[in-house]
């Protein structure tokens, strides 16, 4: 009886009732399908590292004192993180998985599958909480689930999905009025990868504008809230960074590590992008896609190649059916906020602005090297804006169905496995 009551209370706190709410139930099926898609052929192609797994899997091997590829991190001391340009947390999670599951594809990638699936779950709860609209939450999560960049990073051992999970968790906790826990989650996002800072910025800007537009803005109250939020974020971040640095990175204090990250990041400049590098405005058109991994198969006849086809192609790119609606959807959200002053439109705009627009001065003034996958933190806000655009117009259900089919076709077009392994 106590166990049943505990489950009931948990579902009530989450506002998640798949047995009685049809949207929650459909979402549960969507989540299961998303998990299956992330798990199938997780170990393919056999023995291959995909994109930046070349670095992070070998970091985990070094942490676990296992043999690692000799062409990266040569002479790195065993047991310490040689990848000091990023905070430790996400790499530690990958290493922990490998300690239990072994130095194999499942050990490398299961954490990304888990955190990617949990991101979808928390994102659904976040949109429900922020909008009070179940269909909007379901449609937004459907779009996010079938975005290619989100999908790929939910099944390869890179840092970005951990950063995004903790960021979305921090947003959800903010809307649940759990400010200290929100700050902790955003600190964990930043400790996974430095881009978590943009999530912290998102909450501060949103809170300021939300209080102002509700007509109850008070500078003293805002300053008091801001002080507590910044202190919580900073204290949690510094304490955890100090502990991780001392045990697994080799720094005696976190400020030396922060200084190194700043110096390293500042050095990543080039006057014009080369190769897979890109400008942030190119991401909105899916330009400069990154071939994470491509496997071509040659078909021979009498020792002569008669045909070549691609069997596997992991690509760093967004679903075209989603990214090409980005600007119209964000503009519509801005217009709708001007007219209706809804929190959900404001939040999607601020999320988009705080996680994406800072890359413009970095590109134009600092000539910072950038890549299309930096847009991963922004994609959820785009999904909210697109879902809002469709549902706010109250079109016939057939219109939503046709667009949903287009999203699935875009996902299928970029799906990494072109043949059954």
What would you note in describing this structure?
The protein has 421 residues and is mainly α. The protein has one domain. It has 19 helices and two strands. The protein has helices at residues 2-14, 22-39, 53-63, 89-101, 105-131, 134-145, 148-153, 160-175, 179-192, 196-213, 219-249, 254-267, 280-283, 320-323, 326-340, 343-356, 359-364, 379-392, 397-414; strands at 290-301, 304-316. Strands 1-2 form a two-stranded antiparallel ribbon. A hairpin with a 2-residue loop joins strand 1 and strand 2 (304-316). Helix 2 (22-39) packs antiparallel against helix 5, helix 3 crosses helix 4 and helix 16 runs antiparallel to helix 18. The longest helix is centred in the middle third of the chain and has 31 residues, at 219-249. The radius of gyration is 22 Å and the shape is globular. The chain starts with a helix and ends in a 7-residue tail after the last helix.
Average pLDDT: 96
- As a percent range, the share of helical residues equals 55-70%
Strand content: 5-15%
The gross shape turns out to be: globular
Give the end-to-end Cα distance, rounded to a whole number of Å: 47 Å
- Unreliable spans are none
Order of strands across the main sheet: 1-2
Total number of strands: 2
Largest sheet geometry: 2 strands, antiparallel
Number of domains: 1
- Radius of gyration, in angstroms, nearest whole number: 22 Å
SSE class: mainly alpha
């Amino acid at each position: 009886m106590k166990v049943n009551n505990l489950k009931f209370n948990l579902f009530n706190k989450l506002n998640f009732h798949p047995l009685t709410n049809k949207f929650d139930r459909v979402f549960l099926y969507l989540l299961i399908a998303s998990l299956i898609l992330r798990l199938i052929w997780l170990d393919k192609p056999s023995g291959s590292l995909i994109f930046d797994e070349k670095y992070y899997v070998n970091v985990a091997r070094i942490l676990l004192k296992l043999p690692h590829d000799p062409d990266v991190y040569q002479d790195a001391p065993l047991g310490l993180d040689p990848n000091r340009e990023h905070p430790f947390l996400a790499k530690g999670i990958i290493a922990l998985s490998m300690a239990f599951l072994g130095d194999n594809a499942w050990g490398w990638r299961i954490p990304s599958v888990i955190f990617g699936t949990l991101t979808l779950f928390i994102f659904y709860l976040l949109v429900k909480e922020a909008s009070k609209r179940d269909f909007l939450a379901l449609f937004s999560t459907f779009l996010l689930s079938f975005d290619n960049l989100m999908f790929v990073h939910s099944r390869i051992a890179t840092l970005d999905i951990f950063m995004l999970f903790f960021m979305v968790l921090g947003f959800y906790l903010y809307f649940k009025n759990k400010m200290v826990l929100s700050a902790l989650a955003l600190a964990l996002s930043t400790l996974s990868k430095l881009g978590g800072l943009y999530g912290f910025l998102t909450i501060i800007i949103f809170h300021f504008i939300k209080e102002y537009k509700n007509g109850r803005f008070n500078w003293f109250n805002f300053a008091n809230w801001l002080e507590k939020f910044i202190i919580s974020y900073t204290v949690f971040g510094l304490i955890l960074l100090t502990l991780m640095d001392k045990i697994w990175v080799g720094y005696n204090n976190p400020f030396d590590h922060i200084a190194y990250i700043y110096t390293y990041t500042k050095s990543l400049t080039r006057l014009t992008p080369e190769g897979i590098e890109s400008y942030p405005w190119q991401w909105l058109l899916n330009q400069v896609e990154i071939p994470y991994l491509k496997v071509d198969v040659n078909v021979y006849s009498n020792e002569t190649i008669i045909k070549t086809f691609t069997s596997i192609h992991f690509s760093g790119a967004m679903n075209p059916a989603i990214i090409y609606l980005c600007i119209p959807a964000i503009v519509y959200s801005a217009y709708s906020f001007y007219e209706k002053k809804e929190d959900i439109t404001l939040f999607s705009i601020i999320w988009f602005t705080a996680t994406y627009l800072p890359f413009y001065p970095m590109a134009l003034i600092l000539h910072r090297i950038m890549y299309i996958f930096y847009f991963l933190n922004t994609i959820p806000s785009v999904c909210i804006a697109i879902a809002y655009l469709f549902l706010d117009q109250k079109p016939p259900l057939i219109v939503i169905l046709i667009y949903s089919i287009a999203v699935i076709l875009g996902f299928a077009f970029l799906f990494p496995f072109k043949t059954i392994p």
